[in-house]
Amino acid sequence: MNYDYDAVIVGAGPVGSTIAFYLTQNDLNVVMLEKKTRIGYPLQCAGILSKHIFEYNELPEEIILNTVNGAFLHSKNNILNVRKDENAAYIIDRIAYDQFLLNRAIQNGVELINKKVVDVDVEKGIAYFSDKQSITSRVIIGCDGYKSIVSKSMGNKQKNFNASQMLVEINDKNLNNFTKSNGKTDDYVGVYLSEDTLPGFIWVIPLQDNKYRVGLFSEDSHIKQGTIITNFLNENFEYEIIEKYKGFIPVFNKENHLVKNRAILIGDSASQIKPTSGGGLIMAFDSCKIAGGYITDAIKKDNIQLLKGYQKEFNKRYSKEFNYQFKVQNVLNSMDDDDLDYFFEILKENDYEKIISEYGDMDNQSEIIKEFLKRGLAFKFISNVSFFKKVVNIFGIR
């Protein structure tokens, strides 16, 4: 069979643009299909990337709005202050970043077609458009987000959290009062845990000029999330709302296919999202590197079965990390506000702020969990029998 393209990529967001760039570097004939005419709109993420970003993709300096070294972790009545000696994360202009990655792909020879894909034949390699036309490809790559048409065509089940966010202006005095700090607050991310938001949390991310992204992901509706964020702001700050956004965060499902016949999934379409934080862009960029090799081999060797190596390698690299993070999420989800306060008190009393500062990593959270377990953190709770049982049962400690 003659195909129109070597690879068709559904979705021209940051993940689609990145895998397209890699494939054209391998001399493949690549096209991106994108229903939006303005890439990056509307903003649907917090726009924070860990220091590891440069290991996985380019990040132009002009797109960086701020750098952060630490975080204030809040329960209802307690605060943990964790901090690195160097930059821990970058706050970026996510819309500009999406557009940079798209332009890089196009300049490298990727074709872009602005049409909506309504269905995919994963066996024959056909993408169908809303205008009844279609194109064929040796491989179809789903980078089409949380409602992925490609994933649906592969028979996957899709589940998502809702996410809401506001761009607000807050003065420094308000932030200092909230964090009980007299120092700078524009190089700290705020994370607020409460029984009303679990399994998610509220974040406060500093940009520039007293502007902050304040958001939330949870199982609540967008309307209720808006109320929760507004109440949080009213209780703690004098503020001005500049913009509002809403989006969705996929929930990882290890039973879903990443590869089926001629189709392959990367990023949100593959629900490659960290359970504890809802972030996933660096994992998706890493997956682009993994997938790029298998896609190239499958096409050049005319052996579509080689695509299966991508799912095996992804699982080998990330399954343990997902397992640890789901356990943490289950522990937190079993807590009420009193439990969270107690948990934070024990961490503070036993100087775990230093341990989190030393071993904490946005992208590899299993390392800090392993360190907690190695140091016997669970047994610090032994005087609180019900709390201790929650932790040991979920982590299987004997």
List the topology elements.
Elements: E1 5-10, H1 14-25, E2 30-33, E3 48-50, E4 64-68, E5 70-74, E6 79-83, E7 89-92, H2 94-107, E8 111-113, E9 117-121, E10 126-129, E11 134-142, H3 149-153, E12 160-170, H4 172-179, E13 188-192, E14 202-206, E15 211-218, H5 222-236, E16 239-250, E17 259-260, E18 263-265, H6 281-300, H7 308-333, H8 337-349, H9 352-359, H10 366-374, H11 385-395
Parallel strand pairs: 1-2, 1-11, 2-8, 5-13, 11-18
Antiparallel strand pairs: 3-7, 4-7, 5-6, 9-10, 10-11, 12-15, 12-16, 13-14, 14-15, 17-18
3D structure, described in words:
This is Geranylgeranyl reductase family. It comes from Methanobrevibacter millerae. This protein is α/β, with parallel strands linked by helices and 398 residues long. Helix content is 35%, strand content 25%. It contains eleven helices and 18 strands. Strand 1 (5-10), helix 1 (14-25) and strand 2 (30-33) form a beta-alpha-beta unit. Helix 1 (14-25) packs parallel to helix 2, helix 1 packs parallel to helix 6 and helix 6 (281-300) packs antiparallel against helix 7 (308-333). The termini are far apart. The relative contact order is 0.14. The mean pLDDT is 90.
Overall mean pLDDT score? 90
Q: How far do the termini sit from each other?
A: 58 Å
Please give the largest β-sheet: 8 strands, mixed
DSSP summary: helix tally:
11
Q: Judging by the overall fold, what is the CATH architecture of the largest domain?
A: 3-Layer(bba) Sandwich
CATH fold label of the largest domain: FAD/NAD(P)-binding domain
* Unreliable stretches covering 5 or more consecutive residues: none
Assign a percent range to the helix content. 25-40%
Tell me the radius of gyration: 22 Å
Query: What would you call the structural class?
Result: alpha/beta
Q: What's the domain count? A: 3
Q: Output the CATH class name of the largest domain.
A: Alpha Beta
- In CATH terms, the superfamily of the largest domain is FAD/NAD(P)-binding domain
Protein name: Geranylgeranyl reductase family
Pfam family, one: Thi4
GO molecular function: monooxygenase activity; oxidoreductase activity, acting on the CH-CH group of donors, NAD or NADP as acceptor
InterPro entries: FAD/NAD-bd_sf (IPR036188), Flavin_halogenase (IPR006905), Geranylgeranyl_Rdtase_fam (IPR011777), Geranylgeranyl_reductase (IPR050407)
